[in-house]
Design a protein that fits this description.
By secondary structure, this protein is mainly α. It contains 14 helices and three strands. The protein has helices at residues 12-23, 29-48, 60-74, 78-97, 127-140, 145-156, 160-164, 204-216, 240-250, 253-257, 286-299, 304-311, 315-322, 327-339; strands spanning 171-172, 177-180, 198-201. A three-stranded antiparallel beta sheet has the order 1-2-3, with no helix packed on it. α2 (29-48) packs across α4 (78-97), α2 (29-48) packs antiparallel against α5 (127-140) and α6 (145-156) crosses α11 (286-299). This is Site-specific recombinase XerD. Residues 120-335 form the Tyr recombinase domain. Keywords: DNA integration, DNA recombination, DNA-binding.
Amino acid sequence: MSLNDELEPIQPTEAKELYLEQRRQEVSESTIQAHHYRLKHFVEWTDTVAEIDNMNEVTGRDLQRFKMWRRDDGDLNNVTMVTQLSTLRVFIKWCETIDAVAPGTHEKILMPSLDKNEDRRTVLLDKDAAEQLINHLRKFEFSTRTHALVELLWHTGMRIGAAHGLNVGDYDPEEQYVELHHRPETDTRLKNKEAGERYVSLSPEVCDALDAYLTYSRDKVADDHDRKPLFTSRSGRPAKSSLRDSIYRITRPCQYTGECPHDREIDTCEAMDRNKASTCPSSVSPHAIRRGSITHHLSGDVPEKIVSDRMNVSLDVLEKHYDRRGEQEKAEQRRDYLDSI
């Protein structure tokens, strides 16, 4: 009797649905949605590429082929690949427990290596991770400083220095915008100085987050220049490094998904140390949120000139350093645009 004779046939689609139903009892709905998104690519591959209609047939070689297909099809970087493959690995391991695939198959999913010195300029918080993070914050950390800061950074794509320099009076909840001003005399500068000054419109959801933060969580303090910072610490205006650390801490996947994509023990992981969150291979800086926001706007067919003005970045720099759309995605967007003429 072969090993496959001991397995019970099940279609990939059914296995995925059973897995999600079982996980729904353990994790948040946002995590379920994230797993659904990541696993739907695997189900699509089994159906349209590999023509596998029985999970019993899945082998380590198949998983390697899927990995190569997913990277090419999605034009994914290593960080995103690790996130997606880690979910697939958890799914395959679960399939082993219900006799759907051969024992040990999940161990044959090899993760891309993440160089600690890998060029951080290529890292971004992608749309799916951002949505999952924001859903978590809205559900479990609503009105906190971190919640309001993440909502603002993702929606506007502004630099952390610009957010750091905001005062309460710069936010207009009625007209739903913030004003950015270069104020070097009070130690709140904009990178592009007066050229960076602008009004930035906000969505109702971002305003809800800011309003709740101002009402319930903001420390009623002034800074060293007797101004009222929008984002505060107990002693006044926080250092930019403090805001940056908050972003590193909350973007560790274990904080908003409950799982580690690197197979680490969360309780003993060094990145759980308050001052070492940036050592998590999947945590990102505020600039990665900016890069992800810009890419998200461009992917949503927002004209480059509007993105350039809103995010205060030249078109040349936008193209060279921030636009992380794949060439295929750009071509499809051009096709859609031309077809509409």
